[in-house]
Request: fold
Amino acid sequence: MELINFSRLARETKILTIILFGFIVRLLLAIYNSFVSILFVAKDDALRFHENAVAKSQSFNLIFTNMSDGWIYSSFIAFFYYFLTPSIFIPSLLNCFIWFGSALILNKIFKILKLNEINKKIGFILYSFAPTSIVYTSVSLRESLQLFFLNLIVYFILKFFLSNKNIYFFYIVFVNICLSSLHKVYNVLFVFVVILFIIQLINYSEKIRNFVKKNIYFYYIFAFIILITIILFHINELAYFIKIIFDRFEDFLRNMPDSRTNYMLIYKIENYFHFILDSLIFYNFKPFPSDVDNVSDLIYFFENVLRFILIIYCLYNFVYFQNSKAHVIIFFILCTLEILWSLGTTNWGSASRHHVVTYGILILFVIRNNFLTRNMY
Reply:
């Protein structure tokens, strides 16, 4: 028994060593960004959050005013500035520790799913040393917090299904509120919280629960019927609603400043399907080789190639292996966020930042093994 425990400890130490090295790299970059010069790929937004936080700390106005100041994120920084000192090193250091916490949560997720050690090592090497992840999680940006909260939601979803305890539902709601305070796009996750709530209600009835266990696609068929009903009886209202949404996208694109890295200089959306498809392609794969103009573009390009391979592997695993309900919900969270980010992103610099946020979930689906055949009710 002692030998087994020692072996387990040795394996765990290797994983923690990878995470620790990732933390040290970020810490060194945070020191460089704070006392030498901020890397130009993160400079504008990092300084904007910092300057807004300084202004808030001086007036002790810690309430967010509008979306341009990063919602409540600048208030979060201002709180530390008020009691310590207005140095950009403080949020940079905090983000390093927050990223470290997100990695520990991901490790807990891997333990729940009993992933093998080789896959875990590969996963943490990707998670810890992706260049854009290192850059954006070691300076005063929101990516570390978003990554932390999103990993935490995945963890609570798994615990919710495995333990069937209602307390995890409320944890998911609370964390979702925290995410929504960082960016409006996370309000969509409440849809998945509602789905979890419906599933939990169904679980109170033993007869219904047994039926659902035998018919895993019951929820999807039911949702499809509801969707068709809405379309048939409210087609005009639905069309008008969709038009309003895309009109807002047009206004958003029209007001975006022109720059070399912009790829969505569209002022009139002629075809909704083409717009969505173009947004997804450009969001995931820009810059193309013809767009590469400097070292940062080259890093974006090669990281996107790696990410493309991971996405293909992720989709293959999802289609090929058996999926639990928890598995399906987490996958749809990933897909929904990727689609929403793509529709609201117009340049490959911002796209690379949004890629970082879903890194944990993407890696989870890439390295999965016996996660695939577990039944999580």
Q: What stands out?
A: The two ends are 32 Å apart (CA to CA). Residues 370-377 have pLDDT under 50 and may be disordered. The chain has two domains: 39-87, 141-373. Residues 4 and 337 are 41 Å apart (CA to CA).
